[in-house]
Amino acid sequence: MRNYHKTDELIGAVQSLRGNKLYIAGAGKYGEFLGQFFDKHKIAWEGYADKRKSIQKLNGKPVYTYDKLDVDGYYVVSTCNYKDEIEEELRNAGIRPERIISYDNPEVIYELYADWIDWRKYTKRLKRFYGVHKGKRCFIIGNGPSLSLQDLEKLKQEISFGSNSIYALYAHTAWRPTYYCAWDPVFCKEMMSEKKSMFRLMEGCEATFTSLFNDAIQYRDDADMEKLYYMRTMHEIANNGLPKFSEDCAECVYTSGTITYGMLQLAIYMGIQEIYLLGVDCSYSVEVHEDNTVTQTDVINHMDIMEEEEKRFYDANLDRHGVSSITYIDQHLFGYRVARLYAESHGIKIYNATRGGRLEIFERVNFDSLFNKD
């Protein structure tokens, strides 16, 4: 295998293969962009390799499943986040290691992205949120089954963060999150490809945050999308084996399997001093652990109204995992531990006000006790 750390080395290796059949391994968002980069720079390539049978074309190119790969071709792994997994899948499909090209530096894809979009121009807009709520408290809303409409009604005058299918509750409550967040690629592909859906997500919110790589990037210069903000989302592990925690969200926001981790970083960047988690049950129907064991239960992942709404987003996962929704639970817990340690070392309090659930990393508080009884 040929693995590169620098962008020019990776591109040089790809260009040296002119005359050979070239494929991109991974038909996700990074793979989509990499294909656009190849087209722009007139690098000939044949198509994609991906385990999902549900994706047949991307960027006008065919997507081949691993049982139909050209063993004489060369394969560029599209992402470093799942590099080891994709490389193993390619080897198991009969691709010789010397025909696999990958990179181990997440900066590479962003440097390639900068060739198409001056993305720093957009991420620096987040600087306006630095310290904007200094010393205040906020509520970060999870979409767990314990969440209730009655509890949300109490938050109408509070600073709050909501995410993903929380919009399904808008028809049932006057509450709206102050800040709405979404960067799951499956969800964003469905809900951010058209403005009509975007306006539904953003309704009543002061700002909406999403990833640079999601479909909403098409609105980056639209005047009616001034409340839409783009983040550079990164998955990086520190030397201690735990996910990194961002101190500058205008530079990047780190991921750890759950959007709640990103919202914690945003809240702290805004100067929030007390953070209360609500509806963060931390229990899911299908959980994959670090040792690759799988736990399945009969619990529902989300509040019933949102659970029904989300069914249509995640059917694509059925082809890959045999289930419509899957959670890497240990990644969630690692992120929460990092958030707690960061908060403790900076004089910030994070409490769990969820009614029940399994999350015990943060000190528990009674949600009702947080409000005046008058």
Overview of the structural elements:
The protein is an alpha/beta fold. It has two domains: 2-114, Rossmann fold (3-Layer(aba) Sandwich), CATH 3.40.50; 120-370, Alpha-Beta Complex (sialyltransferase cstii, chain A), CATH 3.90.1480. It has twelve helices and 20 strands. The strands form four sheets. Strands 12-11-10-9-8-15-19-20 form an eight-stranded parallel sheet, with helices on one face. Strands 1-7-6-2-3-5-4 form a seven-stranded mixed sheet, sandwiched between helices. A three-stranded mixed sheet has the order 17-16-18. It starts with a strand and ends in a 10-residue tail after the last strand.
List its traits.
sialyltransferase cstii, chain A; 28% helix; 8-stranded parallel beta sheet; 374 residues; 2 domains; 20 strands; alpha/beta; 7-stranded mixed beta sheet; Rossmann fold
Structure summarized in a few sentences:
The chain has 12 helices and 20 strands. It is of the alpha/beta class and 374 residues long.
Instruction: Count every beta strand, where a strand is a DSSP E run of 2 or more residues.
Output: 20
CATH topology of the largest domain, which one?
A: sialyltransferase cstii, chain A
CATH class wording of the largest domain: Alpha Beta
Task: Please report the number of helical segments.
Answer: 12
Indicate the mean pLDDT: 91
The computed structural class is: alpha/beta
Radius of gyration: 21 Å
Structural domain tally: 2
Q: State the low-pLDDT regions, or none.
A: 319-323
Strand fraction equals: 15-25%
Strand order, largest beta sheet = 12-11-10-9-8-15-19-20
Distance from first to last alpha carbon: 67 Å
Q: What best-fitting shape do the alpha-carbon axes yield?
A: globular
- Biggest pleated-sheet summary: 8 strands, parallel
CATH architecture type of the largest domain: Alpha-Beta Complex
